[in-house]
Amino acid sequence: MTAQDIVKSFAFISLERAELLIKYNDLVMEKNKVMNLTGIKDLQESMIKNIYDSLTVYDKKYFPEQGRILDLGTGAGFPGVVLAILRPDMQVVLMDAIRKKLSFIQEAVELLCLRNVEVVHSRAEDAAIQPVYRDAFDVVTARAVKSLPVISEWALPFVKKGGFFAAMKGPGAETELGESQSILHCMHASVDAVKELTLPSGEQRAILYIKKNGVTPTRFPRKAGEAERHPIK
């Protein structure tokens, strides 16, 4: 499959958006030669395992018009920059604790003339207690960030009541979901849908759409590192 074939396999992508996605992939791969943005080194492989993979989280049901997205632990901008390209009407916050990756993203979004992106350098536990970010997003995404009990504690405080956390997982998602029932209960959250899929390269993926039904208790998230050391299962 060519880069064009990969992005055009999604019917909701216009030609203009497809070209921006391809250009972003090119920028990531070029920068990856001098900075470790992603373990993937091949341009075509990145189109599948980064761009295509990021697009799979998109479902119009969970991404309202003029809404706000937070991509937690955005890394090289997947899926956050991809979603910002796809939905220019939505405001997208890209958050990560690694400043150098965010510096690259800032440069890249300026080159792509994306006006709907904000880059935030912070740990999730610190940002989630700030009023400007808490209970503020229609959808929060996280791609391959920690186990589900941990990332749920970090992500759900950012989600508005009635909004969604979209956890992008690989094989073993059902096991992680089974281990997350206690934290989801504490967070007043429940699973709305599970989307299973296979990438063109053959890897299995699962996306868990978790709905936030009530306000997050003030004790969450716990202090930095606590969710990793003592996950609530």
Number of domains: 1
CATH architecture descriptor name? 3-Layer(aba) Sandwich
Largest sheet: 7 strands, mixed
Mean pLDDT: 95
CATH topology: Rossmann fold
Estimated radius of gyration: 17 Å
Roughly what percent helix?
25-40%
CATH domain class name: Alpha Beta
Can you tell me the residue ranges where pLDDT is under 50 for at least 5 consecutive residues?
A: none
CATH superfamily: Vaccinia Virus protein VP39
Walkthrough of the structure:
The protein has 233 residues and is of the alpha/beta class. The chain has one domain (62-227): Vaccinia Virus protein VP39 (Rossmann fold, 3-Layer(aba) Sandwich). Helix content is 36%, strand content 23%. The protein contains ten helices and seven strands. The chain has helices at residues 3-8, 15-31, 43-55, 80-86, 99-111, 124-127, 148-155, 173-178, 181-186, 226-229; strands spanning 68-72, 91-96, 117-121, 137-143, 159-169, 189-198, 204-212. The protein has a seven-stranded mixed sheet, sandwiched between helices. Helix 7 (148-155) links the parallel strand 4 and strand 5 (159-169). Helix 2 (15-31) packs across helix 3 and helix 2 runs antiparallel to helix 4. The longest helix has 17 residues, at 15-31. The protein is globular. The relative contact order is 0.13. The mean pLDDT is 95.
